[in-house]
Amino acid sequence: MTPRYVINGSLPPHPPTYLSSSIFYDQEIQMESWISEAVIHPQGGASSAEKLPFEDGSVQLLSAATALHWFDLDTFLPEARRVLCVNGVMAVYGYLNMKPLLNDPVKATEVDELFIKYNKVLEPHHVVSRVSLLHNRYKDVEFPFEEVNRYPDVRCTFEGKLPDIVNYVSTWSGYQNFKKVDSKGAEELLDFFRKRLYEIASACNISPEDSTTLYRDFQLILCRKTQDGPFV
């Protein structure tokens, strides 16, 4: 059977080129620039995660990419089960941070500490009930499927630059909310993060202009529907 690939919420960095037919959905249409050349016969549209525009049992693979914590889970999870066929799979994955891969363990620890400090300042501005789901690796989420397999800390490495990390942390909802109430304070925080990150990396002979190896540690959860009908 030709698999369908459904994406809800944030999109992965690299679309699956091996699928012969793919369907991309997000709440906003933001993916045309990379879908058109990456996937054969792509289709796309805008849809809420809680009401997917697919027939019962018509989807083989459904992906919730760094987005599950923003959904109304009481509505989304039964809806995901509805659209999946028997033996269909829902892949849930997300990551918390993007970091440089440093050979010096002391400097790597300093990067970890920098993220902790940055998060601490943003804590009052996060949508805590939502973000905490991801921070807890979705461990408290009960998935209505017969098979649920969890794979913590799946490391993905890729080439990038230090400014990519700074840009990434500036997109966090907590930072954006902080910026709305205190623009100067938010800019000072981001400037502190940037300077400290560059200082740590400089000790490892990495400059902001250098291409270097970055990484994300993903939490991956694979859920398989093995029986038709609602989960019992």
Characterize the structure shown.
- The chain is α/β, with parallel strands linked by helices.
- The chain has one domain (4-225): Rossmann fold, CATH 3.40.50.150.
- Helices cover 35% and strands 27% of the residues.
- The chain has 7 helices and 8 strands.
- It has helices at residues 32-38, 73-83, 105-122, 128-135, 162-170, 173-181, 183-202, and strands at 5-8, 22-26, 42-46, 59-65, 84-95, 99-100, 147-160, 212-224.
- Strands 1, 4, 5, 6, 7 and 8 form a 6-stranded mixed β-sheet that branches.
- Strand 2, helix 1 (32-38) and strand 3 form a beta-alpha-beta unit.
- Helix 5 (162-170) runs antiparallel to helix 7 and helix 6 crosses helix 7 (183-202).
- It is elongated and about 55 Å long.
- The two termini are 27 Å apart.
- 24% of the residues are buried.
- One of its GO terms (molecular function) is S-adenosylmethionine-dependent methyltransferase activity.
- Belongs to the methyltransferase superfamily.
- It comes from Araneus ventricosus (Orbweaver spider).
- InterPro entries: Diverse_substrate_MTase, Methyltransf_11, SAM-dependent_MTases_sf.
- One of its GO terms (biological process) is methylation.
Summary tags:
232 residues; alpha/beta; two-stranded parallel ribbon; 7 helices; disordered N terminus
> Could you estimate the helical fraction of the residues in percent?
25-40%
CATH superfamily: Vaccinia Virus protein VP39
- Structure annotation, total helices: 7
What is the total domain count? 1
The CATH architecture comes to 3-Layer(aba) Sandwich
InterPro entries: Diverse_substrate_MTase (IPR051052), Methyltransf_11 (IPR013216), SAM-dependent_MTases_sf (IPR029063)
Organism: Araneus ventricosus (Orbweaver spider)
GO molecular function: S-adenosylmethionine-dependent methyltransferase activity
Domain Methyltransferase type: 47-91
